[in-house]
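To: structure subgroup
Subject: Chain for Friday's discussion

All,

I'm putting the inputs and outputs inline so they're searchable in the archive.
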Amino acid sequence: MNENDVSYDSTTQSSEAASPLLGDEILQHDDSGEGDESAAPHDADKARAAEQELSELRAALFESSIKAELLMAGITKEHLEDGVTLCTLMCSTGKSPKEAAQDVIELYPHLKTVQHNIPQLAAEGGGKTDGFALIKSIFARK
């Protein structure tokens, strides 16, 4: 009977030894919270990506407002990028985009479009100061 008891005890010990391992695996699985930990970094990555996208959108909006102010102030399209760079630097000192655009145009007048006064030609008037009469008199001499 001792042999049976021994074999019974060894079976009992082996089943007892197996059950704590299964229990440890279950406890480790439950305590590890793999679903929670993997979800937390995934949520953190999503939050970082959303924050980065938001900052990119804010930068694009800021640049667009600077471009709009510069164009309204009269900057040429060829010098727009130079003006944006200058305005961005001025805005970093605390100026608004509108103030910065005005300052850029004042400090760098060569960036502004030049408006030429084109004489208006009209067939009416008949006087010597009329543009049409002046042109007519030039061709009439020849």
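Points worth raising on Friday:
Helices lie at 2-32, 34-73, 80-91, 97-107, 131-141.
The radius of gyration is 41 Å.

D.
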